[in-house]
Amino acid sequence: MKGVCLNFENPVEDAVSRIRFAPQSNNLLISSWDSNLRLYDVDSSLLRLEAPAPSQAALLDCCFQSESVAFTAASDGSITRYDLHSGTIDAIGNHQDMATCVGYSIETCQVISAGLDKKVMSWDMRLANPLALFRNLGAEIDSISISGFDLMVAVGAAVNIYDLRNYERAVDFKEPSMDVGISCIASVPYTRGYAIGLIDGRVALEISNPLNSNSTGYTFRCRPATKDGTPHLVSVNDIVFNPFIGGTFVTGDNEGYVTVWDAKSKRRLHEIPRYPNSVASLSYNHMGQLLAVVSSYTYQEANETEVSPQIFVQKMEDSYVGFSSEVSNRK
């Protein structure tokens, strides 16, 4: 079962770039290449907001600050703040090239963005006129993830980790173990660590144990490397960890598959039947009971079908997500 498909009176007109569940509700934030930011109430099956980007640029990422405030990153480099209640839109700042990703740190009240101008930028939202701080990483940036005070940045085939309280230099640097580009990075919510999705269909995990100095690191392939005797490499487009059950995470790939994995046992728990198009983005709700899935073309493959994107919400049964007692985070 692929879950319930959300109904839009006016279909999304271009590829969906990102979906994010709200911090404490089942409101779903949706950014799209059609330049619109949407807020969909999953519980009521209602579209609460549809706000066009001021510049009409494609929206490449989005995130929540709170239930009522969100941010977007756009193809013209702009970082924009949206008041989801009043509909007010404010410009925060700009990159010199496409802004590919945006995130928000609750701990430091910073908006963090990155882009093809090779910069990571931040703005302190506690200030009336926040000044832009930036660091040039010397390479285009496609993915970031924030966990606590840690900012994790995927740069080419490497991972830089910064302390948001002072990111003049990386506090950790993971040399690439393979010469393959990173398509996405996701921080582990229950401890220090991350998972990266690679463009060749593999996932690499680095997880630290807070109780000792031991760490877990391994790489596995989500899909077979060959099909009918020929190379068949499928990019992993997104990874999300279940916020309620530690050690369980989900991958979505360019072939349309969503798969649930257990980090401790290193095994597949469940695979949802194939979606009609590439899986562009994933999001768990705050209790880990619902998984939102975007089935959309991603402009990565020549054979992708450019039909209207669809967003599905799947109720995650216990049998889908498993249970890992060592890293459980049940509340």
UniProtKB/TrEMBL annotation:
Pfam families: WD40. The keyword Acetylation does not apply. Keywords: Repeat, WD repeat. PROSITE patterns: WD_REPEATS_1 (PS00678), WD_REPEATS_2 (PS50082). InterPro entries: WD40_repeat_CS, WD40_rpt. WD repeats lie at residues 92-133, 229-271. The keyword Protease does not apply. This is Transducin/WD40 repeat-like superfamily protein. It comes from Populus tomentosa (Chinese white poplar). The lineage of its organism: Eukaryota, Viridiplantae, Streptophyta, Embryophyta, Tracheophyta.
